[in-house]
Amino acid sequence: MNKGELLYEGKAKRLYTSDKKEELIAEFKDDLTAFNAQKKSQEVGKGGLNCLISTHLFGLLEKAGIKTHLIEKIDETHQRVKRVEIIPIEVIVRNIATGSLSRRLGIQDGLVLPFTLVEFCYKSDELDDPIICDQHGLIMKLATQNEMDTLKALAREINEVLRPFFAQRRLNLVDFKVEFGRGENGEILLADEISPDSCRFWDMDSGEKLDKDRFRQDLGGVKVAYEEVLKRIEGAIL
Ligand code: TYD
């Protein structure tokens, strides 16, 4: 696959140059982190599961007309992706209240929101990814108003594809985080990953959590839960 120089190492992925200037190679790691990396662990096979899950979901979104940075899955833990300039805004989409939304505002955990909520957080480990509004984004020159409007519209479109897809598989898509990048000519592409590291999935029948909350909350069975999400994505409803 001609993996070149290590360009960037994040909490869950490494990015390498490739033999083409406009393409990079992403490697999914087995590392698990939570609470801005204050809690760390490893789960052998997690990187491979997330690589498969994210490849599948990006393919589904491409089919629905959403442009992504993904070119192809190379092997178990690697993807070939388009080089993009990441917009330093985490876009959080929520269908059901939990996590920081419930902690910050006292909204009942598990409340089905009357409409889908889209929030922006500034991607900054030093500042602990603070929540921001559009005006902060403009003042800090993170993105233009046009781009922020596009991020919100795309985030809602992604939810409109993924929420029913998971519902058919008896999983509630509670919330998720997506990141976007600027590609050639400033075109906005979905980047990073969509996996149980960056989404919350609750089993519709048992209420069981099948995502990184198993690690955050020390519930155990992280890998089994991620394997279950993959099985459901591949169509086998247990
Ligand atoms: P949120 O409830 O804000 O985070 P937490 O309770 O972990 O503080 O998270 C909403 C969703 O977005 C959840 O599925 C996890 C995901 N997310 C990330 O993947 N990375 C992040 O840095 C953040 C803030 C959220």
Could you explain the architecture of this structure?
It is a single chain. The model has no long low-confidence stretch (mean pLDDT 97). It contains six helices and 14 strands. Helix 1 runs parallel beside helix 6. It has 238 residues and is of the alpha+beta class. Strands 8, 9, 10, 11, 12, 13 and 14 form a seven-stranded antiparallel sheet that branches. The chain has a five-stranded antiparallel sheet with strand order 1-2-3-7-6. Strands 4-5 form a two-stranded antiparallel ribbon. It folds into two domains: 6-82, Phosphorylase Kinase, domain 1; 85-220, 2-Layer Sandwich (D-amino Acid Aminotransferase, Chain A, domain 1), CATH 3.30.470. The structure holds thymidine-5'-diphosphate. Thymidine-5'-diphosphate is lined by residues 90, 92, 99-101, 121, 129, 175-177, 198-200. Thymidine-5'-diphosphate binds at residues 90, 92, 99-101, 121, 129, 175-177, 198-200.
